[in-house]
Write a structure and sequence with these properties.
- By secondary structure, the protein is an alpha/beta fold.
- The chain folds into 2 domains: 181 residues, 3-Layer(aba) Sandwich (Rossmann fold); 67 residues, Cation efflux protein, cytoplasmic domain (Alpha-Beta Plaits, 2-Layer Sandwich), CATH 3.30.70.
- 51% of the residues lie in helices and 17% in strands.
- A 5-stranded parallel β-sheet has the order 2-3-1-4-5, sandwiched between helices.
- β6 and β7 form a beta hairpin.
- α1 packs across α8.
- The two termini are 32 Å apart.
């Protein structure tokens, strides 16, 4: 079952292609709206979603503590969708969150500047000058989002398996190219391995959520590594009770078979932040 991430420029028809792909494959579709629903379940306020969603945060946002929380739950939503298989993930840094997984197809949809400008003019009913401003602003916002959260250049071609230029190809041809890529032997052969890795990623994320956001254990540098149900925890806590609390919390998560606890305590006089 395919897992496809779509990164797109404004005016490239990437959103349309992603929507049509999800209909063609009859699969789950993760975009801004479905991510908002998931965030609501986690208790993330809509204001945070609007502040960060594929936007370049303002200067003072660099110092806000909810950056880590937003990224944590965004990754969780992506892992959850991808673990189910048969899904299309639009934007949200999916090509980076799921980067390196051999059974996932990462697609970038682009178009020449003049083509994009004409499409933006039609969509927003504006002139050339305003269309250029809209295009540049959108590109800057998405570039800033990727730099802020992932410290990467979203235009880096090495992040993608397939780049489709809709100045050359129609949406129908683009969809066919993507479907052909999904059906290649290399991706099909890797799907079992990818499924196992996504199960590990989902389990790791669930344990982090439980320790940091549910139990609110004051832990620094929390790392969780899962390998088919065998979980290794590491980090620093201010007292011995927290060491055991982390282990109990992890053991209570469905799918955990064994917990190897490498967390240690280090008494300190300053307050701990919830970092991992």
């Amino acid at each position: 079952m395919p897992v496809i991430t779509i990164s797109r420029q404004l005016g490239s028809l990437g959103t349309t292609i992603a929507q049509l792909l999800s209909e063609n494959f009859k699969c789950n579709y993760l975009d801004k709206e479905s991510l908002e629903e998931t965030f609501g379940e986690y208790g993330i306020p809509k204001e945070s979603m609007e502040r960060y969603d594929e936007k370049k945060p303002g200067f003072w946002d660099l110092f806000k503590t909810d950056k880590a929380r937003y990224l944590h739950f965004m990754k969780g939503a992506i892992y959850e969708f991808a673990h189910k298989g048969n899904c299309v993930i639009l934007g949200r840094g999916g090509q980076i969150v799921l980067g390196g997984l051999p059974g996932v197809l990462h697609v970038r949809v682009v178009a020449p500047m003049d083509v994009r400008i004409e499409r933006i003019k039609k969509r927003f009913e504006c002139d050339d000058q305003d269309a250029v401003k809209i295009m540049q602003h959108n590109d800057n916002e998405r570039a800033g989002f990727h730099k802020f959260f992932f410290d990467c250049n979203w235009e880096d071609p090495s992040l993608y398996d397939l780049v489709v230029n809709t100045g050359t190809f129609s949406t129908e041809s683009a969809i066919k190219l993507i479907k052909d890529a999904v059906s290649t032997g290399e991706l099909k052969a890797a799907q079992k391995e990818t499924c196992l890795k996504l199960a590990d990623f989902s389990l790791e994320h669930e344990i982090k959520t439980a320790i940091i956001y549910k139990e609110k254990v004051p832990i620094q540098f929390l790392e969780v590594h899962a390998n088919q149900g065998v979980v290794t925890l590491s980090g620093i806590v201010p007292n011995t009770d927290d060491v055991e609390q982390c282990k109990r919390t992890a053991n209570a998560i469905k799918g955990v078979k064994e917990v190897r606890n490498e967390i240690f305590f280090k008494p300190i006089s300053t307050n701990y932040g919830l970092h991992y």
